[in-house]
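U., I forgot to send this yesterday:
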Amino acid sequence: MKVLHICSAFSPLSETFIYDYITELERQGIENHVLTFHRLNEQDRPFDRVYVVQIKHDMIWLVQRLIAQLSKGPGRYFSIQRRAMRKIIEQVNPDVIHAHFGPMGVLVAPIAKQLKIPLIVSFHGYDASSLIKEKFWVKEYQRLNSIVKFVTVVSNDMKLRLERFYPNKIKVVHVGKRLADYSFIFDINTIKNFLSVGRLTEKKGYFDLIKAFSSVLQEYPYLSLDIIGDGHLKNELQKFIITSNTNNRINLLGPVQHERLIEYYMNSDAFILTSKTAPNGDMEGIPTVLIEAQFLGLPVISTKHSGIPEVIPDENHVFLAEEGNIEQIKQCIIRLINTEETELKEIIKRGRLKVENEFNLHIEVKKLINLYTN
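Result:
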Protein backbone atom coordinates (compact mmCIF):
# COMPACT_ATOMS: atom_id res chain seq x y z
CA MET A 1 0.00 0.00 0.00
CA LYS A 2 1.23 3.47 -0.93
CA VAL A 3 0.34 6.51 1.22
CA LEU A 4 1.09 10.14 0.36
CA HIS A 5 1.37 12.42 3.39
CA ILE A 6 0.62 16.11 2.87
CA CYS A 7 2.13 18.62 5.31
CA SER A 8 3.10 22.26 4.97
CA ALA A 9 6.61 21.61 6.34
CA PHE A 10 8.58 18.42 6.85
CA SER A 11 9.84 18.23 9.53
CA PRO A 12 10.01 21.15 12.01
CA LEU A 13 11.25 20.52 15.56
CA SER A 14 7.74 21.09 16.92
CA GLU A 15 6.22 18.34 14.73
CA THR A 16 8.20 15.25 15.69
CA PHE A 17 4.94 13.28 15.77
CA ILE A 18 4.44 13.37 11.97
CA TYR A 19 7.95 12.07 11.36
CA ASP A 20 7.37 9.38 14.00
CA TYR A 21 4.12 8.30 12.33
CA ILE A 22 5.75 8.00 8.92
CA THR A 23 8.86 6.12 10.03
CA GLU A 24 6.77 3.68 12.09
CA LEU A 25 4.44 3.12 9.13
CA GLU A 26 7.55 2.21 7.13
CA ARG A 27 8.52 -0.31 9.80
CA GLN A 28 5.08 -1.87 9.54
CA GLY A 29 5.23 -2.34 5.78
CA ILE A 30 3.54 0.76 4.37
CA GLU A 31 5.21 2.62 1.50
CA ASN A 32 5.15 6.32 2.40
CA HIS A 33 5.73 9.46 0.36
CA VAL A 34 5.67 13.07 1.59
CA LEU A 35 4.50 16.17 -0.27
CA THR A 36 5.48 19.42 1.41
CA PHE A 37 6.20 23.10 0.80
CA HIS A 38 9.29 23.24 3.01
CA ARG A 39 11.94 20.59 3.76
CA LEU A 40 13.46 21.14 7.21
CA ASN A 41 15.98 19.30 9.43
CA GLU A 42 16.84 16.92 6.61
CA GLN A 43 20.01 15.61 8.21
CA ASP A 44 18.44 14.93 11.60
CA ARG A 45 15.21 13.51 10.14
CA PRO A 46 16.18 11.72 6.96
CA PHE A 47 13.55 10.36 4.59
CA ASP A 48 14.04 9.71 0.89
CA ARG A 49 10.61 10.00 -0.70
CA VAL A 50 9.95 13.70 -0.10
CA TYR A 51 8.61 15.99 -2.83
CA VAL A 52 8.89 19.75 -2.34
CA VAL A 53 6.24 21.78 -4.14
CA GLN A 54 7.89 24.49 -6.22
CA ILE A 55 5.68 27.57 -6.53
CA LYS A 56 6.97 30.80 -8.05
CA HIS A 57 5.00 32.97 -5.71
CA ASP A 58 5.90 35.04 -2.67
CA MET A 59 2.90 33.80 -0.68
CA ILE A 60 3.80 30.09 -0.59
CA TRP A 61 3.67 30.04 3.21
CA LEU A 62 -0.04 30.91 3.28
CA VAL A 63 -0.72 27.28 4.10
CA GLN A 64 -1.25 26.51 7.78
CA ARG A 65 -0.99 29.35 10.27
CA LEU A 66 -0.55 32.45 8.15
CA ILE A 67 -3.50 31.69 5.91
CA ALA A 68 -5.74 32.11 8.94
CA GLN A 69 -4.56 35.70 9.33
CA LEU A 70 -5.65 36.92 5.91
CA SER A 71 -8.87 38.88 6.29
CA LYS A 72 -10.08 38.15 2.75
CA GLY A 73 -9.26 34.44 2.88
CA PRO A 74 -6.59 32.63 0.84
CA GLY A 75 -8.86 31.04 -1.75
CA ARG A 76 -7.18 32.48 -4.87
CA TYR A 77 -3.79 31.25 -3.70
CA PHE A 78 -5.16 27.74 -3.16
CA SER A 79 -5.61 27.31 -6.92
CA ILE A 80 -1.92 28.10 -7.53
CA GLN A 81 -0.82 25.60 -4.91
CA ARG A 82 -3.23 22.92 -6.09
CA ARG A 83 -1.97 23.00 -9.66
CA ALA A 84 1.58 22.38 -8.47
CA MET A 85 0.47 19.70 -6.00
CA ARG A 86 -1.62 17.78 -8.50
CA LYS A 87 1.37 17.08 -10.75
CA ILE A 88 3.22 15.42 -7.87
CA ILE A 89 0.16 13.49 -6.69
CA GLU A 90 -0.42 12.10 -10.17
CA GLN A 91 3.24 11.12 -10.34
CA VAL A 92 3.15 9.29 -7.00
CA ASN A 93 -0.29 7.77 -7.68
CA PRO A 94 -0.99 6.85 -4.03
CA ASP A 95 -3.67 4.50 -2.72
CA VAL A 96 -4.46 6.97 0.10
CA ILE A 97 -3.76 10.64 0.74
CA HIS A 98 -3.18 11.52 4.41
CA ALA A 99 -3.24 15.27 5.12
CA HIS A 100 -1.79 16.51 8.41
CA PHE A 101 -3.64 19.51 9.92
CA GLY A 102 -7.05 20.73 8.78
CA PRO A 103 -5.88 23.45 6.34
CA MET A 104 -3.81 20.93 4.43
CA GLY A 105 -6.86 18.70 4.16
CA VAL A 106 -8.85 21.63 2.77
CA LEU A 107 -6.06 22.37 0.31
CA VAL A 108 -5.76 18.85 -1.11
CA ALA A 109 -9.41 17.74 -0.93
CA PRO A 110 -10.51 18.86 -4.43
CA ILE A 111 -7.50 17.08 -5.95
CA ALA A 112 -8.30 13.88 -4.05
CA LYS A 113 -11.89 14.07 -5.28
CA GLN A 114 -10.90 14.68 -8.90
CA LEU A 115 -8.39 11.82 -8.88
CA LYS A 116 -10.72 9.56 -6.86
CA ILE A 117 -8.11 8.92 -4.15
CA PRO A 118 -9.40 8.31 -0.60
CA LEU A 119 -8.52 11.17 1.78
CA ILE A 120 -7.80 11.04 5.51
CA VAL A 121 -7.21 14.26 7.47
CA SER A 122 -5.53 14.43 10.89
CA PHE A 123 -6.20 17.38 13.20
CA HIS A 124 -3.62 18.21 15.84
CA GLY A 125 -4.25 21.47 17.72
CA TYR A 126 -4.83 25.03 16.49
CA ASP A 127 -6.69 23.66 13.45
CA ALA A 128 -9.35 22.25 15.79
CA SER A 129 -9.49 25.24 18.15
CA SER A 130 -8.74 28.78 16.92
CA LEU A 131 -9.64 28.06 13.28
CA ILE A 132 -13.11 26.71 14.06
CA LYS A 133 -13.99 30.18 15.38
CA GLU A 134 -13.44 31.75 11.94
CA LYS A 135 -16.17 31.85 9.29
CA PHE A 136 -13.80 31.03 6.45
CA TRP A 137 -12.59 27.82 8.07
CA VAL A 138 -16.03 26.78 9.31
CA LYS A 139 -17.20 26.92 5.70
CA GLU A 140 -14.15 25.07 4.39
CA TYR A 141 -14.35 22.36 7.07
CA GLN A 142 -18.03 21.80 6.30
CA ARG A 143 -17.22 21.48 2.60
CA LEU A 144 -14.43 19.01 3.41
CA ASN A 145 -16.93 16.61 5.02
CA SER A 146 -18.31 15.54 1.63
CA ILE A 147 -14.86 14.42 0.47
CA VAL A 148 -12.93 13.12 3.47
CA LYS A 149 -13.27 9.42 4.31
CA PHE A 150 -11.96 9.58 7.88
CA VAL A 151 -10.80 12.28 10.27
CA THR A 152 -8.34 11.48 13.04
CA VAL A 153 -7.87 13.48 16.23
CA VAL A 154 -5.43 13.11 19.11
CA SER A 155 -7.93 13.30 21.98
CA ASN A 156 -11.56 12.78 22.91
CA ASP A 157 -11.73 16.47 23.79
CA MET A 158 -10.83 17.35 20.20
CA LYS A 159 -13.30 14.79 18.89
CA LEU A 160 -16.13 16.60 20.69
CA ARG A 161 -15.08 19.90 19.12
CA LEU A 162 -15.13 18.51 15.57
CA GLU A 163 -18.15 16.19 15.68
CA ARG A 164 -20.43 18.87 14.24
CA PHE A 165 -18.28 18.95 11.11
CA TYR A 166 -17.61 15.22 10.67
CA PRO A 167 -20.33 13.09 12.30
CA ASN A 168 -19.47 9.36 12.32
CA LYS A 169 -16.12 9.93 10.60
CA ILE A 170 -13.84 10.78 13.53
CA LYS A 171 -11.35 8.29 14.99
CA VAL A 172 -9.07 8.95 17.97
CA VAL A 173 -5.46 8.09 17.08
CA HIS A 174 -3.09 9.21 19.80
CA VAL A 175 0.29 10.71 19.24
CA GLY A 176 2.54 7.84 20.30
CA LYS A 177 6.15 7.15 21.14
CA ARG A 178 8.36 4.17 20.36
CA LEU A 179 9.13 2.43 23.68
CA ALA A 180 12.50 1.15 22.52
CA ASP A 181 13.73 4.72 22.04
CA TYR A 182 13.43 5.60 25.74
CA SER A 183 15.17 4.48 28.89
CA PHE A 184 13.39 4.56 32.24
CA ILE A 185 14.61 6.75 35.12
CA PHE A 186 14.51 4.72 38.34
CA ASP A 187 16.43 6.82 40.84
CA ILE A 188 14.36 9.98 41.41
CA ASN A 189 14.13 10.42 45.17
CA THR A 190 13.84 14.18 45.58
CA ILE A 191 12.58 16.93 43.31
CA LYS A 192 14.95 19.83 42.67
CA ASN A 193 15.37 20.34 38.93
CA PHE A 194 12.29 21.04 36.80
CA LEU A 195 12.15 20.92 33.00
CA SER A 196 9.65 22.41 30.56
CA VAL A 197 9.68 22.02 26.77
CA GLY A 198 7.51 23.90 24.31
CA ARG A 199 7.25 26.70 21.81
CA LEU A 200 7.37 30.12 23.46
CA THR A 201 3.81 31.07 22.52
CA GLU A 202 0.74 32.15 24.44
CA LYS A 203 -0.89 28.72 24.67
CA LYS A 204 2.09 27.24 26.53
CA GLY A 205 1.37 29.52 29.50
CA TYR A 206 4.99 30.32 30.31
CA PHE A 207 4.25 33.64 32.00
CA ASP A 208 1.98 31.73 34.40
CA LEU A 209 4.68 29.14 35.02
CA ILE A 210 7.40 31.72 35.68
CA LYS A 211 5.15 33.65 38.08
CA ALA A 212 4.25 30.49 39.99
CA PHE A 213 7.81 29.17 40.07
CA SER A 214 9.19 32.55 41.17
CA SER A 215 6.79 32.48 44.09
CA VAL A 216 7.83 28.94 45.05
CA LEU A 217 11.51 29.97 44.93
CA GLN A 218 10.94 32.36 47.83
CA GLU A 219 10.38 29.35 50.08
CA TYR A 220 12.45 26.76 48.19
CA PRO A 221 15.41 28.71 46.72
CA TYR A 222 17.35 25.56 45.77
CA LEU A 223 14.92 24.65 42.95
CA SER A 224 15.70 25.27 39.27
CA LEU A 225 13.65 25.41 36.08
CA ASP A 226 15.01 24.95 32.55
CA ILE A 227 12.75 25.96 29.65
CA ILE A 228 13.60 24.58 26.21
CA GLY A 229 12.03 26.03 23.09
CA ASP A 230 11.85 29.04 20.80
CA GLY A 231 9.12 31.42 19.76
CA HIS A 232 7.99 35.01 19.44
CA LEU A 233 7.67 35.51 23.22
CA LYS A 234 11.33 34.70 23.88
CA ASN A 235 12.52 38.28 24.50
CA GLU A 236 9.50 39.17 26.64
CA LEU A 237 9.94 36.05 28.75
CA GLN A 238 13.66 36.71 29.21
CA LYS A 239 12.94 40.27 30.39
CA PHE A 240 10.25 38.95 32.73
CA ILE A 241 12.68 36.47 34.29
CA ILE A 242 15.28 39.21 34.82
CA THR A 243 12.80 41.61 36.42
CA SER A 244 11.59 38.85 38.75
CA ASN A 245 15.21 38.33 39.92
CA THR A 246 15.08 34.61 39.14
CA ASN A 247 17.49 34.50 36.19
CA ASN A 248 19.90 32.42 38.26
CA ARG A 249 17.24 29.73 38.89
CA ILE A 250 15.00 29.95 35.76
CA ASN A 251 16.78 29.48 32.43
CA LEU A 252 15.59 29.90 28.85
CA LEU A 253 17.79 27.51 26.89
CA GLY A 254 16.40 27.98 23.37
CA PRO A 255 15.61 25.15 20.93
CA VAL A 256 17.54 21.86 20.89
CA GLN A 257 17.47 18.83 18.62
CA HIS A 258 15.37 15.93 19.88
CA GLU A 259 18.40 13.72 20.53
CA ARG A 260 19.90 16.30 22.90
CA LEU A 261 16.51 16.89 24.46
CA ILE A 262 16.54 13.37 25.88
CA GLU A 263 19.66 14.31 27.85
CA TYR A 264 17.81 17.19 29.49
CA TYR A 265 14.97 14.87 30.45
CA MET A 266 17.42 12.43 31.98
CA ASN A 267 19.09 15.16 34.04
CA SER A 268 15.80 16.50 35.42
CA ASP A 269 13.67 15.42 38.39
CA ALA A 270 10.24 16.56 37.19
CA PHE A 271 8.49 17.93 34.12
CA ILE A 272 6.06 20.86 34.03
CA LEU A 273 3.89 22.35 31.28
CA THR A 274 1.21 24.93 32.10
CA SER A 275 -0.74 25.14 28.82
CA LYS A 276 -3.77 27.39 28.46
CA THR A 277 -6.14 28.66 25.77
CA ALA A 278 -4.50 31.54 23.89
CA PRO A 279 -6.38 34.83 23.39
CA ASN A 280 -7.11 33.85 19.77
CA GLY A 281 -8.59 30.51 20.89
CA ASP A 282 -5.53 28.40 20.00
CA MET A 283 -5.38 25.21 22.08
CA GLU A 284 -3.18 22.16 22.46
CA GLY A 285 -4.01 18.70 21.20
CA ILE A 286 -1.99 16.45 23.49
CA PRO A 287 1.58 17.76 23.88
CA THR A 288 4.01 14.98 22.99
CA VAL A 289 6.42 16.21 25.65
CA LEU A 290 4.02 14.99 28.35
CA ILE A 291 4.12 11.54 26.78
CA GLU A 292 7.91 11.57 26.56
CA ALA A 293 8.36 12.77 30.13
CA GLN A 294 6.19 9.97 31.51
CA PHE A 295 7.81 7.38 29.23
CA LEU A 296 11.15 8.36 30.75
CA GLY A 297 9.83 8.21 34.29
CA LEU A 298 9.44 11.86 35.26
CA PRO A 299 6.57 13.01 37.48
CA VAL A 300 4.48 15.59 35.61
CA ILE A 301 2.72 18.81 36.57
CA SER A 302 0.37 20.33 34.01
CA THR A 303 -3.06 21.95 33.55
CA LYS A 304 -6.64 20.86 32.90
CA HIS A 305 -6.41 22.08 29.35
CA SER A 306 -7.76 20.46 26.18
CA GLY A 307 -6.72 16.78 25.97
CA ILE A 308 -3.98 16.97 28.61
CA PRO A 309 -5.99 15.18 31.36
CA GLU A 310 -6.38 12.22 28.98
CA VAL A 311 -2.63 11.50 29.04
CA ILE A 312 -2.29 11.82 32.83
CA PRO A 313 -3.41 8.89 35.06
CA ASP A 314 -6.53 9.70 37.08
CA GLU A 315 -4.67 9.23 40.37
CA ASN A 316 -2.13 11.84 39.26
CA HIS A 317 -4.71 14.51 38.46
CA VAL A 318 -3.91 16.18 41.79
CA PHE A 319 -0.97 17.63 39.88
CA LEU A 320 -3.20 19.29 37.27
CA ALA A 321 -4.02 22.95 37.91
CA GLU A 322 -6.83 24.93 36.34
CA GLU A 323 -5.36 26.63 33.30
CA GLY A 324 -4.16 30.14 34.05
CA ASN A 325 -4.46 29.65 37.83
CA ILE A 326 -1.03 30.68 39.12
CA GLU A 327 -1.81 29.83 42.75
CA GLN A 328 -2.89 26.29 41.83
CA ILE A 329 0.25 25.82 39.71
CA LYS A 330 2.31 26.95 42.70
CA GLN A 331 0.54 24.52 45.03
CA CYS A 332 1.08 21.64 42.59
CA ILE A 333 4.82 22.37 42.59
CA ILE A 334 4.96 22.53 46.39
CA ARG A 335 2.94 19.34 46.70
CA LEU A 336 5.25 17.46 44.35
CA ILE A 337 8.52 18.54 45.98
CA ASN A 338 7.13 17.48 49.36
CA THR A 339 5.91 14.08 48.17
CA GLU A 340 7.47 11.15 50.03
CA GLU A 341 9.75 8.84 48.08
CA THR A 342 7.43 5.82 48.12
CA GLU A 343 4.48 7.81 46.78
CA LEU A 344 6.73 9.54 44.24
CA LYS A 345 7.69 6.17 42.79
CA GLU A 346 4.01 5.22 42.51
CA ILE A 347 3.28 8.48 40.68
CA ILE A 348 6.08 7.72 38.24
CA LYS A 349 4.96 4.10 37.69
CA ARG A 350 1.38 5.16 37.00
CA GLY A 351 2.52 7.70 34.41
CA ARG A 352 4.75 5.20 32.65
CA LEU A 353 2.01 2.56 32.56
CA LYS A 354 -0.51 5.05 31.17
CA VAL A 355 1.59 5.95 28.17
CA GLU A 356 2.75 2.36 27.61
CA ASN A 357 -0.85 1.21 27.31
CA GLU A 358 -2.48 4.14 25.50
CA PHE A 359 0.26 6.10 23.70
CA ASN A 360 2.40 3.36 22.21
CA LEU A 361 3.43 4.38 18.68
CA HIS A 362 3.40 0.79 17.39
CA ILE A 363 -0.24 0.34 18.45
CA GLU A 364 -1.43 3.78 17.30
CA VAL A 365 0.09 3.31 13.85
CA LYS A 366 -1.81 0.02 13.51
CA LYS A 367 -4.97 2.11 13.89
CA LEU A 368 -3.87 4.25 10.95
CA ILE A 369 -3.17 1.16 8.85
CA ASN A 370 -6.67 -0.11 9.60
CA LEU A 371 -8.09 3.17 8.33
CA TYR A 372 -5.96 3.03 5.19
CA THR A 373 -7.08 -0.55 4.54
CA ASN A 374 -10.75 0.32 5.03
